[in-house]
Here is the input.
Amino acid sequence: MDLHILDHRLRVTSISKDGLVHFTHPLIKLIFLRNRTRCKFFSLTETPENYTVVLDEEGFKELKPSEHLQVEGSVWLPLNVVSSGNVSSSSQAVGVTKIAKSVIAPLAEQHVSVFMLSTYQTDFILVKEQDLAVVVSTLGEEFSIFREVEGESVPVQDVHNGLHKNGKEAIQPTVHPVLIPQNHFCVMSLDPDTLPSIATTLIDVLFYSNSPKEGTSSTAGAELDCIKFFSFSLIDGYISLVMDTEAQRQFPADLLFTSSSGELWRMVRIGGQPLGFDECGIVAQISQPLADSDISAYYISTFSFDHALVPEEDIGRVTEMLRHQRKEPAAS
Here is the structure.
């Protein structure tokens, strides 16, 4: 298996709900006017709390400082696992489940915090630039590691011979509460050439729509039936959309495409309070048991909380699995 460090330096930001009006111009430019910006990595995710925007340094220049904009202080590097073609696996799972044991768990053990962004096409594992040496050291035995530099894949050697650690003390990870809303979600894609055809619908959904089923509170409680969640990514020319079926009905059916099975997904939202960016093992806490049960999962981190999407038919098993996991610490 190959691990690629992509040629993007990313920033993770948050736009407040009431501050969105100050950023519609740059966001429309980044989404629809690719010839007017040099941004190659852009992702916008709406949750009940805020809008999380992950974008490269060229895109970040478009966002002017504001009291409505929060910026996480680190530069993040996206990693991507690529099958070298001769690796066979009995697992049929897709998404973060495929890399839970080989990438997510080892990084958690070395206290490297990750920010996940699953798309229709692939899974991006974002790590802080300052942790890159630990990442290479930790994953160098399992993967051939390459760094993308101006379109070329340059092999990366572990100069520390596997001995480089980040020196953080091991701590027992917090078992965070989860919320399982009732929405059914779709993971979809779109030919970038047809993006203008859905422009008015996309603008409406992103900037003007509020789910009528959502509660009036800005935070989701356990009793909340549905949750506002919409994610749009335009990364290296590929578009990915995650939306619930209610939002999907607003789009022309012949333009959006999904997997041949057309399956629906249920969400597991992780975190009772905002998770922050320093804690390690949050993704592993969810992805490891899913991998043990060979359950597919897309995983999208946001500025405040994390979100895993699992197949609709597996939500019962996942719910029971997570309930059992949360009982274990009390029993020990």
Observations:
- Residues 34 and 57 are 15 Å apart (CA to CA).
- The chain is about 20% helix and 30% strand.
